[in-house]
Design a protein that fits this description.
The complex is a heteropentamer. By secondary structure, chain A is α/β, with parallel strands linked by helices. Chain A has helices spanning 50-57, 85-91, 108-115, 122-136, 138-142, 153-165, 183-200, 211-217, 235-240, 242-248; strands spanning 9-20, 24-35, 39-44, 66-75, 78-79, 93-96, 171-175, 203-208, 220-225, 228-234, 251-252, 255-256. In chain A, α3 packs parallel to α6 (153-165). In chain E, α2 (42-57) packs across α4 (84-105) and α8 (196-206) crosses α10. Classes of the chains: A alpha/beta, B alpha/beta, C alpha/beta, D mainly alpha, E mainly alpha. The B-D interface holds B 8, 10-11, 15, 19, 48-50, 52, 54-57, 59-60, 62-64, 66-67, 78-79, 82-83, 85-87, 89-90, 102-104, 151-154, 156-157, 160, 179-180, 278, 387, 391, 394-395, 398-400 and D 46-47, 49-51, 55, 96, 146, 149, 158-162, 164, 166-167, 177-179, 255-260, 262-264, 268, 299-300, 303, 307, 313-315, 317-319, 322. The structure holds adenosine-5'-triphosphate (2 copies) and magnesium ion (2 copies).
């Protein structure tokens, strides 16, 4: 849709390997670069390693007994693999985790406020941003006093997004923002991503299964399979690629296939990496 | 060499008490080794083993040491004693439990290997009542006495005796159990405050002692009317309470303080030579003295055994004979350097418990020391003897033991 | 509704025979404290059909499924199953009636292997007592192996042979969903409830999943109720659709009817989907 | 490379379901059995029996029991000491009331009595979960100890409240009482441990075990897929208590020979056994044994090292022992929170790959 | 009639004892709230704090015994004594240091583990601290005196004697404890509910990973919370140490705090106080009314049974956060 506006690479991931539990090798040399002010999409099937990549960047692997064993991750040209997650948020990288991860016992509003934990620009600014988030997600305003644990799946996703926005980040790592959201809301969320990206210049790296939407909004895309990057390119060109079309967009040559029809024939072609 | 293991405890809930006792026990043997070259020319080895007052560790210590030629055990724990009683009869080791353990072990016909002279729990209860009788001109009728006790096998021991004596002397006994560890005794002392007993007798151990004395002072119970068993009568029990513990009384069967000639030797041979257990921190305290007293009795028994058998490297069996023929006269105590430190002991094949004599001491909070306030008093054997007989007969029956002829 | 009415059925466009009413929800109202999650909703599920439930987030879809599977007891309304009114029941009793389900936020037993997870689906098919199990040899082992065979069939069917012995905690999301489906199928249910079975999947995987769902429906004749946000999937595989919005029912009918319903478009779809 | 499963093909579900599917493991297991039954009884002495092996076996049984409840069914219990006391007092009452019945039967019955008591105290688990339940089980611990201390019937009205185990024989060999030989003590505990481990294995691999694990991993989901929480939880409590009761009965009758409830079955016992299963590995039969071995051996070894070899004063070494045990526990948890069993499994997994990782 | 007056006295004393329990329970609540860790070491922490306080007050040489045993020296004290206030301050510093070390050496490596694993780790910690306390300050029984008054309050005794004809026993130490506890609770509630750090603390309790992901430093929160808990332990240690001396059994008061915790709810600061009051009154009253009929010494188990009964009706305790059960 848009070409990345600016070619400076904010975040660079060079050839990283990740091992869980000392034995399970998950990423087998992944390299990415995320340009400043762009929206970069990370696509790929289940278990491809998208989440792992994002967690490697935000240094959240340690608590899952995973570790980066090779390669380097640079942010603004400086290695960040040793920074703790909190320090990373201070430098401006925040992750919205897969599966929402709201603070169940806190109210919706308190959840949002924890997003502003690292900020030191005063409560007035925080209050303003809170209003901004409520404007983005009016449903949250209605439920501001409920415990997050009792909100529906979609509401929790909004809380997670809103919470990240509250930290006024430079870069947001978004893990499957569309999961479990109603179609209308998916569009809405991506519109918000776009608005935040354009309006506030926030850089996005988003992992998505919903290739269709992701490629519509992203500038650049990487496709991950089995722990390796198998293809990358500007979003527009990816959308035209026939393989991507078939496997990730569900289109055949005749247009969209019906889910009812795919049932009888087996198809599986994998890029050989 | 002769081996006398010291099953001690210096950690855990009762560690503060166990440490002092173990020091006294060690030091006396060390003194004999240093000064006299042991007993009858045999050096006494005292390997120490930590039990933490825990019965399983106690067994472990016992098994660990028993094949090293150990002669006699003194675990300072009623629980471990009960565990060891059957074992020592099979392994043929002597078990010496002065002032604790199984009371009816006094009956040597049933408990061939166990000795508990000079006094046992029941003796203690009886001596306390005797003292109260003396205080009241021989009449306790109508008086109220409360027993505050550690709610365990140990604490329950005196109940039967006190009940028997209550019948005889007409006082009214009330029972106030305290669950271990016992640092919270508000209910108990509120009850005492309401009931206003004339006297309180306490069978406690560990923190329960201090907590009780503290609470007693809180409710202004007169300390003079508060008598502890010997295990409730050490410095650690009263010191934390401070001045308000002044006047508290406790039983004892050994002397207190440092006014004994032996301490000159301890100073020369141990303290000055830096050989005292734990650097001599606890020398002279009540529990130290009791540990030392236990060592005195054991060494006298060893000496007797050596004389009887004519060999110096005696076996545990010979030591048992030594115990059964043991006589510690006041003269002998003076010779040792501990005049009037303990009651006269004379044991025999059927009497493994000595005379049961004990005396009272009282705490002087300003001088921070115990003072002896009575002579050795004999317990009321009319009441006790049948109880011992009954209990040991029950044990013999349960364990299939045919009492020996003595 | 009478017994006879319940027996009636209809035939779908592609010629499948749909039977009488299997499950009938009548005027269900569910409240949490002050929040009314479901407001007087009625709908039915017929024997052999694939019934979709759609609606915006927080509409009460999952809550409705929870009512069906007995996890929530509605404050008002009646639940009829196979022509009988169902009183308040414990969830495990409902499971015994032949209703199995999957969950929106995957609820697998993380500490167990895939195989064991699927075997739990057959709980109610196994009956040897504690003593027999303690001895194992003989009855218990035989029963175990018989059930294992059934489970292996499902494993083959869902093509998850290679992860049989893997602890589920380690699996990626999509496979977990598949294992959950396998577990539900292992119970050989009459009614299968799927809560967003395809969330977090890419198109290829959705295609796989759709195929499984259709096959289950076809081969075992299992009735299926599913919640799904991907309108493509819903339109393609479901026979009838219920639309919910903030606890109310705003539409009910064939995918085609629903898609063109104005209210549904406003509340849910945003733009009309092709 | 030395340790591998390749070439070990299974042709039936039955052989796939066996306990040690890998040949090397199977041989290792047979070797352990041969040593345990065929060699150790001939070389064991009193010290090894009393200080190490007998407590190890008895605690292994208790750990198996608690592991069923906590490791498999996910119900954390701190009432183990109390339940062991039930086993001990039950066997004592049975032994003294029916002296002519075999002690083996008494021990099993004691387990049964404990199972009933365990079920009773398991009832709150239907409402109460997690740490609340753990603390609630302390009610059982304290109440039972109080009860056995307070009601003289339980200790046959003995003056001090102690119970003593009289001599009883199995096949002519004394297994309780002072005259018991070290091999006899060891063997009776070994037999119980062996049979019970086997029972535990069978129960946990079948349907019942799966019900427990389902409840543990996610109780709501388990209920919705058809697990009746009442029967699942209560059966876990019952069977767990059965094991623990037997352990308590053995501890009293074979090992200690005499016991006083507050001392022998206090809350420390509860913690000790919980330690064992966590260090060993929750939800693992092997872990129960490994944890028991660790917690029994560690203090003995430390003591021998500090006092025996380094010649430290006993009090210092006792304090250091505490520090070291504490530090080691933390250390182990950090290295592998899932216990020795998982450590062992990971080692095997690495060995399989060795020397070519990935 | 007498019985009734006695009962009132028992109830009053129960309330005060309950406050003493609550002091210990508070430390548990704080740590649980902030990290989901059930900190079994809280009792030992109180003991350690009290030992350190006495040690500093009396100018004891730390590790004296160990040094003496190894080098044959005779160190004992520095020969000075530190005023109570300063000693308390210094002890607080030690507790902060300890919190820092605990985070560094233990908690940090256990982020994201299951609660039971963390619980176990704190038991390991309890063992360690127990040993360390003994090695540092010696295992003997110490007297703690920071000038808190103790013993029966005369004015209350006289006043009640006038009203009821029976002078009530109220311990002055208990009155102090009540005042201090009230202050602590008020401060802590305000902190947890209305400050940024308090909110962060609750967030951490819910989800470690998510907390990390929004930039909350677990390390900072934990050090902070453990420091506060250490301070609360110090207060508890002072109270209980004054009451019954500083020695090993002090750590066992943790066992009396558990039912309080359970009843009040693991996550509620006011719950700790209310729970304490109910447990205190409950156990004392039961011992007074029923105890004599069944042989007494019922307090240990009755507290637990009472809490259990409450839990059956409210599984999360009186004030605990609702346990969220959803699928
Ligand atoms: N904690 C863990 N321990 C072991 N293996 C893990 C762990 N987390 C992830 N994995 C494995 O790593 C691989 C990649 O997982 P990851 O979650 O990164 O995939 P993903 O691309 O995000 O997939 P999805 O779209 O399903 O979320 C998977 O095979 C998964 O099994
Ligand atoms: N146990 C509960 N307690 C309180 N409120 C609840 C509970 N369960 C659901 N709710 C509320 O009921 C409403 C409906 O929730 P439900 O989970 O059924 O939505 P949904 O339609 O499944 O949404 P989504 O598509 O986001 O999953 C929500 O607002 C939710 O907050
Ligand atoms: Mg992912
Ligand atoms: Mg839902």
């Amino acid at each position: 849709m848009l070409d990345s506006p600016d070619q400076e690479n904010l975040l660079e991931v060079n050839n990283i390997e990740v091992i869980y539990n000392h034995v399970i090798l998950v990423l087998k040399g992944v390299s990415l670069s995320v340009p400043k002010g762009g929206i970069t999409a990370l696509l790929g099937g289940n278990g491809a390693g998208k989440t792992t990549t994002l967690k490697a960047i935000s240094n959240l692997l340690a608590s899952e007994r995973g570790e980066v064993t090779k390669g380097s991750i640079l942010y603004h040209g400086k290695p960040i693999s040793d920074a703790n997650p909190a320090a990373l948020v201070k430098t401006g990288v925040i992750q919205v985790m897969e599966g929402r991860h709201c603070f169940e016992h806190l109210t919706v509003e308190e959840n949002l406020l924890t997003g502003a934990y690292t900020r030191s620009d005063g409560s007035a600014a925080i209050k303003r941003d809170l209003e901004m988030v409520y404007d983005y997600f009016p449903r949250l305003r209605e439920r501001r006093k409920s415990q997050a644990g009792y909100t529906s799946g979609g509401e929790q996703q909004m809380v997670a997004m809103g919470r990240a926005l509250m930290s006024r980040p430079e870069t947001i790592l978004l893990d499957e923002p569309s999961m479990g959201l109603a179609p209308q809301l998916v569009e809405q969320i991506f519109e918000i991503v776009k608005a935040v990206n354009e309006g506030e210049g926030v850089t996005f790296l988003l992992a998505e299964q919903n290739t269709n939407v992701a490629l519509r909004y992203a500038h650049y895309g990487y496709i991950l399979e089995n722990g390796r990057v198998v293809m990358d390119g500007p979003a527009a060109s990816l959308r035209e690629n026939p393989d991507v079309k078939e496997f990730y967009l569900g289109m055949s040559d005749e247009g969209r296939k019906s889910f009812r029809d795919v049932r009888s024939y087996r198809r599986r072609k994998r890029w050989l990496a | 060499d002769l081996v006398v293991p010291n099953l001690s405890y210096r950690t855990g809930a009762y560690g503060a008490n166990g440490t002092q006792y173990a020091d006294g026990f060690n030091d006396y043997f060390a003194l004999l080794n240093e000064r006299d070259g042991g007993i009858g020319g045999e050096i006494i080895q005292v390997p120490e083993c930590e039990t933490a007052y825990n019965t399983e560790k106690g067994i472990e210590c016992y098994e660990e040491t028993k094949d090293t030629g150990a002669l006699v055990y003194n675990p300072l724990s009623t629980g471990i004693t009960y565990q060891l009683i059957p074992k020592v009869s099979v392994d043929k080791k002597v078990l010496y439990t002065p002032g604790y353990g199984r009371t009816s072990a006094k009956n040597g016909k049933v408990f061939e290997w166990v000795f508990n002279a000079p006094a046992n729990y029941w003796d203690g209860a009886s001596v306390a009542i005797k003292y109260l009788l003396d205080e009241n001109g021989g009449d306790l009728s109508g008086k109220k006495i409360a027993l505050v006790y550690h709610n365990s096998a140990y604490g329950k021991e005196p109940i039967r005796t006190l009940e028997g004596l209550a019948e005889k002397h007409g006082y009214e006994l009330s029972l106030v159990p305290v669950d271990a560890p016992g640092q919270e005794q508000k209910s108990q002392w509120l009850q005492i405050r309401r009931d206003k007993p004339d006297y309180v007798i306490m069978y406690g151990w560990g923190v329960m002692n201090q907590a009780a004395i503290q609470e007693a002072s809180n409710i202004r119970f007169p300390m003079e009317n508060f008598i502890g068993i010997w295990w409730s009568g050490s410095e650690v029990d009263v010191l934390p309470v401070g001045d308000k513990a002044n006047g508290y009384k406790a039983l004892t069967f050994n002397g207190v303080g440092m006014d004994y000639p032996i301490y000159d030797d301890i100073k020369t041979y141990l303290l000055d030579a830096d050989k005292a257990s734990q650097g001599g921190e606890h020398v002279g305290s009540a529990l130290y003295s009791r540990g030392m007293y236990a060592a005195v009795v054991i060494s006298e028994a060893i000496r007797t055994a050596q004389e009887l058998s004519g060999v110096s490297a005696i076996t545990a069996e010979q030591l048992r004979d030594g115990f059964e023929n043991l006589e510690i006269t006041p003269e002998r105590l003076s010779e040792i350097g501990l005049p009037d430190f303990g009651p006269e002991i004379k044991m025999s094949c059927d009497n493994h418990g000595g005379s049961g004599m004990a005396r009272l001491q009282q705490w002087d909070a300003t001088a921070k020391q115990w003072n002896l306030i009575t002579e050795f008093t004999e317990p009321d054997q009319d009441i006790l003897a049948p109880l011992v007989e009954e209990d040991s007969a029950a044990y013999a029956k349960e364990s299939g033991i045919t009492p020996r002829d003595c | 509704m009478t017994q006879e009415q319940a027996q009636e059925g209809f035939t779908t466009a592609d010629g499948r025979k749909i039977g009488g009413v299997l499950m009938d929800m009548r005027d269900i109202t569910l409240r949490f404290g002050g929040v009314e999650a479901i407001k007087k909703i009625s709908f039915d599920i017929r024997q052999g059909e694939i019934r979709a439930i759609i609606g915006p987030n927080g509409a009460g879809k999952s809550s409705m499924l929870n009512v069906i599977s007995g996890f929530y007891n509605p404050q008002e309304g009646e639940v009829w199953f196979k022509g009988y009114r169902r009183g308040p029941m414990k969830p495990y009793e409902v499971a015994r009636l032949g209703i199995a389900r999957t969950f929106q936020n995957i609820a697998l037993f993380d500490g167990m292997t895939v195989l064991d997870n699927i075997m739990t689906g057959r709980l109610n098919k196994m009956s040897s007592g504690i003593v027999k199990q303690a001895i194992w040899w003989g009855a218990a082992e035989r029963e175990e192996n018989e059930n294992r065979e059934q489970v292996e069939k499902i494993i083959d069917f869902l093509e998850i042979q290679n992860i049989r012995k893997t602890p589920v905690g380690r699996l990626p999301y999509g496979l977990k969903k598949r294992v959950e489906l396998a577990r539900a199928l292992a119970a050989e249910p009459q009614l299968l409830l799927l809560d967003e079975p395809m969330a977090g999947m890419n198109v290829e995987e959705k295609e796989d999943m759709s195929r499984f769902i259709l096959d289950v429906n076809d081969e075992f004749g299992t009735t299926i109720a599913l919640i799904e946000h991907d309108m493509g999937v819903v339109m393609d595989i479901s026979d009838r659709v219920v639309v919910m919005d903030y606890g109310r029912k705003i539409g009910d009918g064939t995918p085609h009817e629903v898609r063109n319903n104005k209210e549904v478009i406003d509340a849910y779809l945003g733009v009309a989907h092709d | 490379m030395f340790y591998r499963e390749a070439g070990d093909f299974k042709t039936s579900y039955r052989s796939d379901g066996q306990t040690f599917p890998i040949k090397l493991d199977r041989w290792g297991y047979y070797a352990v059995l041969v040593v345990a039954f065929g060699i150790i009884p001939f070389i064991i002495n009193d010290y090894w029996a009393s200080a190490v092996l007998v407590p190890f076996l008895i605690y292994a049984i208790a750990a198996l029991g608690l592991n069923i409840l906590t490791g498999y069914a996910g119900q954390v219990s701190l009432g183990t000491g109390g339940f062991m006391a039930v086993g001990a007092y039950a066997v004592y009452k049975l032994m003294t009331a029916f002296p002519d019945v075999s002690i083996v039967i008494h021990i099993v019955l004691a387990g049964g009595v404990t199972a009933i008591v365990g079920m009773l105290f398991g009832l709150p688990s239907l409402r109460i979960k997690g740490f609340y339940l753990a603390v609630a089980t302390l009610a059982a611990q304290f109440f039972l100890v109080w009860l056995f201390n307070k009601v003289p019937w339980f200790y046959n009205y003995s003056a001090s409240g102690q119970i003593n185990s009289p001599e009883r024989t199995v096949l002519g060999w004394a297994v309780t009482g002072p005259a018991t030989s070290a091999p006899a003590k060891y063997l009776i505990c070994l037999c119980f441990a062996f049979v019970l481990a086997w029972v535990a294995r069978n129960l946990t691999r079948g349907m019942l075990g799966r019900k427990w694990m389902a409840i543990r991993d996610m109780d709501i989901a388990a209920e919705i897929i058809g697990v009746n929480p009442l029967t699942a939880k209560l059966s876990a409590f019952a069977i767990s208590s059965f094991f623990i009761g037997i352990a308590g009965a053995l501890l009293f009758s074979v090992y200690l020979g005499a016991a006083e409830v507050g001392e022998a079955f206090g809350i420390n016992k509860s913690f000790l056994v919980l330690f064992m299963i966590i260090i060993g590995g929750l939800g693992s039969i092997f872990g129960s044994f490994a944890g028991a071995a660790f917690m029994v051996l560690l203090p003995v070894m430390l003591k021998n090292l500090l006092v025996g070899s380094l010649g430290w004063p006993t009090d210092l070494s006792a304090h250091f022992e505490l520090m070291i045990v504490g530090a080691l526990i933390v250390f182990f948890l950090i290295v592998e929170p899932h216990g020795l069993a998982r450590l062992w499994a990971l080692t095997k997994e690495k060995l399989r790959l060795w020397p070519f990782p990935h | 009639m007498d019985q009734l007056i006695y009962a009132i006295e028992v109830v009053l004393n129960g309330l005060m004892t309950g406050v003493m329990y609550a002091l210990v329970a508070l430390g548990f609540v704080l740590i649980f709230k902030a990290s989901g860790v059930f900190n079994y070491a809280q009792g030992v922490l109180a003991l350690f704090a009290a030992m350190t306080l006495v040690g500093i007050q009396q100018g004891q040489v730390p590790f004296a015994h160990m040094i003496n045993a190894t080098f044959g020296t005779h160190l004992e004290t520095f020969g000075w004594s530190v005023p109570s206030f300063l000693a308390i301050l210094l002890t607080a510093v030690v507790m902060v240091l300890l919190a820092f070390l605990i985070e560094k050496l233990v908690l940090q490596h256990l982020v994201g583990q299951e609660p039971i694993i963390l619980f176990m780790a704190t038991i390991g910690l309890a063992y360690f601290l127990e040993g360390l306390g003994d090695v540092m300050w010696g295992a003997d029984i110490k007297r703690l005196d920071v000038g808190l008054p103790q013993g029966i309050s005369d004015s209350i005794e006289i006043a009640t004697d006038k009203w009821f004809g029976y002078g009530f026993f109220i311990d002055r130490l208990d009155i102090w404890a009540t005042a201090i506890a009230a202050l602590l609770v008020a401060a802590l509630v305000a902190f947890a509910q209305y400050t940024k750090q308090g909110r962060a603390m609750r967030a951490v309790a819910d989800d470690h990973q998510a907390a990390l992901s929004v930039g909350i430093s677990l390390r900072f929160i934990w050090v902070m919370v453990w420091s506060i808990a250490g301070f609360v332990a110090l207060v508890a240690g002072i109270m209980w140490g004054t009451k019954s001396g500083v020695q090993f059994s002090l750590s066992l008061i943790a066992l009396k705090a558990l039912p309080v915790l359970m009843l009040g709810g693991f996550t509620s600061i006011p719950g700790a106080i209310v729970g304490g009051l109910i447990i205190g009154v409950g156990e004392k009253l039961f011992e007074f009314l029923i105890g004599p009929m069944i042989g007494g010494a019922t307090e240990n188990w009755f507290a637990y049974v009472l809490a259990l009964i409450f839990l059956v009706f409210r599984p999360q305790g009186l004030f605990g956060e609702r346990i969220i059960e959803r699928v």
